[in-house]
Amino acid sequence: MKENQKKFLGIMFECCNIYKRVYVNKEGNAYEGRCPKCYAEVKVRIGSEGSDNRFFRAR
């Protein structure tokens, strides 16, 4: 990832079958976002025991 690019996770919102990127919050401790159609929330905490995966599915 280039230096000037924001860190993101790719989330497939299964509620509405929509893919969207979610970005690191202001505190820098989680990735946060909402489904663009139904506004369901997703929060993925950042931690040392985390995953190297960049793409996830939210139900």
Architecture overview:
With about 60 residues, the chain is mainly beta. The protein has one domain (about 10-59). About 0% of the residues lie in helices and about 45% in strands. The chain is built from no helices and 5 strands. It has a 5-stranded mixed beta sheet, with no helix packed on it. It is globular and about 30 Å long. The protein starts with 7 loop residues before the first strand and ends with a strand.
Write the layout of secondary structure elements.
Elements: E1 8-13, E2 18-24, E3 30-34, E4 41-45, E5 55-58
User: Looking across the biggest beta sheet, what order are the strands in?
Assistant: 4-3-2-1-5
Q: What is the total domain count?
A: 1
Radius of gyration: 12 Å
- Provide the β-strand percentage band: over 45%
Low-pLDDT segments: none
Give me a quick take on this structure:
The protein is mainly beta.
Key features of this structure:
59 residues; mainly beta; five-stranded mixed sheet
